[in-house]
Amino acid sequence: MGPFFVRKKTLNRHNPRATRASRRFNISSMGSDLAIAHLRGAGSPARELDQAVAALAKRQHGVVARAQLLDLGLSRRAIGGRIERGLLSEVFLGVYVFGARRITRKGRWMAAVLAAGDRALLSHRSAGRLWRLLPPAAEHVEVTCLPGRVVRRKGIVSRQSAVRGDEWLVRDAIPVTSPFRTIFDLAAVAPMRELERAFHEAEAREVTDRVSLPILLERYPGRRGTKNLRALLEARGPVGITRNDFEEAFVALVDQHGRRRPRMNAPLAMRGRFFEIDALWERERVAVELDSRGIHGTHKKFESDRLRDRILLAEGWRTMRVTWRQLQEEPHEMAEDLKQALGQGHHPHPPGK
């Protein structure tokens, strides 16, 4: 998803002062890049203030809250003047991008947390995307505020909930619910398929956290969505994306890179045995397995997969195993490997029997 653009907005003197920024995190620990050419060199007190604002914005993905500007020593009139000159452009009420009208996705997430006020956290789907448990998407930013705190900002969806100290942290300079607390929150608002996807990604990435899902279920037994979450945890095998999801994504990658489509779920006879190959290029003698723990996670299936790989290799086939994570994170490298394997294929003798 490309950068967001924010509109320059003139100061409304009747706008209420935004709630002060969260004390949950240490601003000095944040980091990102923001170049503001007009601040080079020393100069007047106004320039020194702008340099201080620039330094703060650099640590916060380019954004600052009105309350932070006041704390730095800018008057309301000075803030208004910078808005009129385009040095500050409003993202959400009381939060501005400094020195530019472009804002990154992380900048927008940070701006929403600042707009939501004291001890607010990025949460739910937005947190899932920050943790890379869900794919990128253009949507409202979701935050969680303290109970009793009501936030009404266009472009922000806020919820109220108590969050314990081991259920949140700072990721890429943004205060956010922890990975498993994020999944726990998703169970209350997301359909089962989306919840499964996040659950699978956490499993595939071997995500660790200070608090586990079973502990969260014990802490909040009456929360909405706990039934679905328990079903995932109590399933006999790992639960993840469906086989169709994986196959469709793989075929889309093949199409995108101009390769001939394979036969999907193709039967193959070899040494008196019959195997089902997830993606088969018979002429090139290339067999690809879409390696999902949800499908290949049992001990029996593990053994049969290795037997098939051994036989295929001995009979002159090239085998590849592709994981969902690789398909999502390394599509170009995977496509190059596949191109090389297919280019080396095409054997004149028929498949072994």
Topology:
Blueprint: E1 4-5, H1 45-59, E2 63-65, H2 66-72, H3 76-84, E3 88-92, E4 95-98, E5 102-103, H4 105-116, E6 121-122, H5 124-130, E7 141-145, E8 156-160, E9 168-171, E10 174-177, H6 179-189, H7 192-204, H8 213-219, H9 226-234, H10 243-256, E11 263-270, E12 273-281, E13 286-290, H11 293-296, H12 299-314, E14 318-322, H13 324-329, H14 331-343
Parallel strand pairs: 7-8, 13-14
Antiparallel strand pairs: 1-5, 2-4, 3-4, 6-7, 9-10, 11-12, 12-13
Helix pairs in contact: 5-6, 6-7
At a glance:
The chain is an alpha+beta fold.
Outline the structure in words:
The structure is a single chain. With 353 residues, the protein is of the alpha+beta class. The chain has helices at 45-59, 66-72, 76-84, 105-116, 124-130, 179-189, 192-204, 213-219, 226-234, 243-256, 293-296, 299-314, 324-329, 331-343, and strands spanning 4-5, 63-65, 88-92, 95-98, 102-103, 121-122, 141-145, 156-160, 168-171, 174-177, 263-270, 273-281, 286-290, 318-322. The chain folds into two domains: 4-177, no CATH class; 243-343, Endonuclease, Chain A (3-Layer(aba) Sandwich), CATH 3.40.960. 41% of the residues lie in helices and 18% in strands. It has a four-stranded mixed β-sheet with strand order 11-12-13-14, sandwiched between helices. Strands 2-4-3 form a three-stranded antiparallel β-sheet, with helices on both faces. It is elongated.
